[in-house]
Design a protein that fits this description.
The chain contains 3 helices and 34 strands. By secondary structure, the chain is mainly β. It folds into 5 domains: 2-169, Immunoglobulin-like; 174-241; 244-313; 318-415, Immunoglobulins (Immunoglobulin-like, Sandwich), CATH 2.60.40; 418-476, Immunoglobulin-like (Sandwich), CATH 2.60.40. The strands form 9 sheets. It has a 6-stranded mixed beta sheet with strand order 2-11-9-4-7-6, with no helix packed on it. Helix 2 (429-437) runs antiparallel to helix 3 (460-467). The N and C termini lie far apart (179 Å).
């Protein structure tokens, strides 16, 4: 019982001595020998926003030490102190430790102290306290300061040097990479950003490209978009190359080749277009997004393009099977004689007109329209157009709707007068003989050439009509 009372009395005297020592009731002598070094360790530390970490107050005694006291200051907008724990410097001794009072609003920790109870001092380096800290969601640098630092030996304060520390809450990076061709603007545009900064990203596509989407720490296709910095961020902006169509329309008959021949074309692709006319057609010009008549020609695809190739009909109609038939016997009398000229006319588009061009014995021209009876067959039949005796020539001129035309070869034929019975170009004794050979015969009107007056009976009048022209020549 007496031993227990003695122990309690001894502890009381020790605590009383401490109160006197730290309360300043008895001024102690400060030893001016080699100073004791007290530092924040590490002296500078870089942490991320929200990170929990530990700082220590390290001590290297300049001489043996018995106790310490200190206070800590910090920036409460950047740091929060979670706990203060006893360090290692008095390890192996019975100690009395006070963790102090933490004020995370004022940014202070006061009344931190510790001492060895009973006999004993230390001179080896160690830590006085450990500070459990948390970085707030911000960025910047906070000083971690030491003040009211007191280190004692058994009898007095000792000389002390103090080194404060810093904690830097680092800023974060925002890296933007591009997939395709374009750019991204950041607002604000900074190398690093404080925690919680909102950065707006605006994608701008290069010519011929369009912005499609974000990936990485941003998603979707909204443009602009915003990202909140809570750490290092990485964003990819995706751009897609624009594709355009080239539409070709044909006016006329032909085709157009494209090189390269694709369904769509990337921006800036140069396409060569070549017009190929069909048979009987010629390329005339480009329309739409091209102009002129150069062939082939190039077009640059920087938008959807439409081109018209104009082809013109250059083929004239074709004339074949030119045929002439006439009454039998051949007769200039319109009551009995007639002439029919026919032909076949074809065209790659359509025939618009067929003319029979008659050169009369008098030297005049007579252009008459031939009519069709289908199948490309045209004809002209007349009992009056060739009613004048003499030499004729004729040709056929065919035209289409595109002003293409062709004229056939010239055909010559004669319409003999009735008194030139044998149609040899002159009136001679032979014509009289031919009439006399049929003298007295009868038939329908215009039945044979020997019936010169076409009255149906061969009489002396027919001989007179021939003899009236005896010796005349009409065929030149």
């Amino acid at each position: 019982m007496k031993k227990e009372v003695g122990k309690r009395y001894s502890l009381f005297l020790t605590l009383l001595s401490l109160l006197v020592l730290f309360g300043g009731l008895i001024p102690l002598y400060v030893d001016a020998t080699s100073p004791t070094v007290v530092v924040i360790s590490p002296a500078s530390k870089i942490v991320s926003a929200g990170q929990t970490f530990t700082l220590t107050v390290a001590c290297t005694p300049g001489q043996s030490m018995k106790s310490y006291e200190l206070r800590v200051s910090f920036n409460p907008t950047l740091l929060q102190i979670n706990a203060v724990t006893e360090g290692t410097i008095f390890q192996g001794y019975t100690t009395f430790f006070n963790s102090g009072t933490i004020d995370n609003t004022a940014g202070t920790i006061v009344n931190i102290y510790g001492l060895i109870l009973g006999a004993g001092t230390v001179s080896s380096p160690g830590t006085l306290v450990s500070l459990s800290c948390s970085a707030r969601l911000a960025s910047g640098t906070s000083a971690v300061g030491l003040s009211n630092v007191g280190i004692t030996n058994d009898t007095s304060y000792v000389s002390t040097t103090v080194t404060n520390g810093t904690v830097t809450l680092r800023e974060f990076t925002l890296s933007v990479s591009l997939d395709g061709s374009g750019s991204v603007a950041k607002s604000p545009n900074q190398a690093t950003y404080a925690y919680g900064t909102v950065v707006q990203l605006t994608a701008s596509a290069s010519a011929g490209w369009w912005f499609s989407s974000w990936t990485g720490n941003a998603t979707g296709s909204s443009n602009p978009t915003s990202i909140t910095i809570t750490g290092n961020k990485s964003v990819v902006a995706h751009f897609t190359q624009s594709q355009y169509t080239l539409t070709v329309t044909i006016d006329g008959s032909g085709s157009v080749t494209k090189n390269p021949n694709q369904a769509t074309y990337a921006y800036g692709t140069v396409v060569t277009v070549t017009a190929v006319p069909s048979s009987g057609w010629g390329f005339s010009s480009w329309g739409g997004d091209l102009s002129g008549s150069q062939n082939p020609k190039t077009i640059t695809m920087n938008a959807n393009r439409s081109v018209i190739a104009h082809f013109s009909d250059i083929a004239a109609p074709q004339i074949s099977g030119v045929t002439r038939t006439s009454s039998d016997p051949l007769d200039t009398d319109s009551s009995f004689g007639w002439v029919n000229v026919s032909c076949t006319v074809t065209d790659n588009v359509a025939v618009s007109q067929v003319l029979l061009r008659i050169h009369n014995p008098s030297g005049s021209w007579n252009n008459v329209t031939m009519v069709t009876r289908g199948g490309g067959v045209y004809y002209y039949r007349s009992s009056t157009a060739f009613a004048t005796a003499g030499n004729y020539t004729y040709s056929i001129r065919a035209s289409d709707g595109n002003s293409n035309s062709i004229t056939s070869s010239t055909v010559a034929f004669s319409m003999p007068p009735n008194w030139d019975v044998n149609n040899d170009g002159r009136c001679s004794i032979m014509d009289l003989v031919l009439v006399s050979n049929h003298y007295g015969q009868s038939g329908s009107h215009g039945w044979i050439r020997e019936d010169v007056d076409n009255n149906g009976v061969i009489t002396v009048l027919d001989l007179s009509l021939v003899s009236n022209h005896y010796g005349q020549v009409w065929w030149v």
